[in-house]
Amino acid sequence: MAAHDLTDRPADDARNEPQHETRQALLDAAEELFAEHGIDGTSLRAITRHAGANVAAIHYYFGSKEGLVQEVFARRLAPLAAERLARLEACGEAGEESLQPGEKTLECILRAFVEPFVELGWSIDRGTSAPHLSGRLMAQVITDRGDFLRGALAAELRETFDRFGRALTLAVPHLDREELIARFNFAIGTLVHAVGGIRLFDEENRALERSDALVDRLVAFLVAGFRAPAC
Amino acid sequence: MAAHDLTDRPADDARNEPQHETRQALLDAAEELFAEHGIDGTSLRAITRHAGANVAAIHYYFGSKEGLVQEVFARRLAPLAAERLARLEACGEAGEESLQPGEKTLECILRAFVEPFVELGWSIDRGTSAPHLSGRLMAQVITDRGDFLRGALAAELRETFDRFGRALTLAVPHLDREELIARFNFAIGTLVHAVGGIRLFDEENRALERSDALVDRLVAFLVAGFRAPAC
DNA sequence: GTCTATATAGCGATAGAC
DNA sequence: GTCTATCGCTATATAGAC
Q: Within the 45-84 window of chain A, which residues sit less than 8 Å (CB to CB) from chain B?
């Protein structure tokens, strides 16, 4: 299973007193409502109503709506980045019956990138105790809130980007840097839309609803895409 | 070139009197501002200010903000669908030195799907006379506004989806229906994010800015993805 | 067909009691 | 740490003059 539990609140510095339970309730409510109605479409009043708290509490804990939004993402992106990097690290360990030197590696790299994100996106819909950051919310931010991600959360994303970029460079040596970056971007789009994009027609839901099959299909698709000859 | 000109306003039923020029100005302004600040983030006041018109004009022509939003999309999606289908139709015509029966076909199908969308997404940034629906706006709607696309515009999308789905079924016979739908969805995500997604780091911009190279790279990536063995 | 003026409602944010 | 009350602002939408 996962090296980190993506479904739990962050470690919170050892002690875990329910001192800040209002704070947690606000984050949970915000996360759920943001995912459903979008960030702009969710008022502070709706959040506090849902959390059984008060408008002023948000400003007490987070200073502003913007501060709340940042916290909602920060508490998910940090474990996500850690989990991805941990799985990437674990890729080279087992000496298996690989066909070629880079062969097994590419699949493992992409799975390390894809699987934690799919698990994170799925967790909100699976009736677990607390609501979690859904894929929809991630997708919204990735498509709509560039400045936001570029700002506060860039460092964490940068590390993930760099480490996976380096691993991919070794795994797919026939691509130059520019082509590799383009394909990595394609992979991000594929992943984000698969987890958080809309399903226009019912058939799509059936084809994408099981998360284990989705991961396998994503990885197969992306491995082939990266292996494609350079343009 | 294109069979339809995606950069022009729709044919407007032969006559082209500037009778509704305020209406067109409102649509242009809305499209530009929606793409830049999001739909929720764009007020009617901002639109009318930008169009040199008045708040009441929007309600006169479109009834509500929602009506305006629908019109903004409808006037782009119809030519987009027509262009895609026209290019798909043109695929089987030239009897070339194909390696295998489905070989050339798959690339042509995917190019017919990808290229008109890239051209549409790019047109807004190229200083043409009128502002156009950018890829960012399409991406926003595809990720955030499922109900909206499922409703008013579903018919047009349904036809595109069906026709390309049938063509792909023939071109990639090793995939069953569910797997094909999943991969088609992957392709949509790749395309949408490549055209409308954010670029976290400068390097990505360099790798994705030239639209002709982008189309080639997208098609190469997607062809390989569809050719990947079934899971 | 386009305008000004305004109605009504909701927003984020803050002050201050407890 | 949590509450009520409210400020100041902007939103969508509409009525009615021209």
A: none
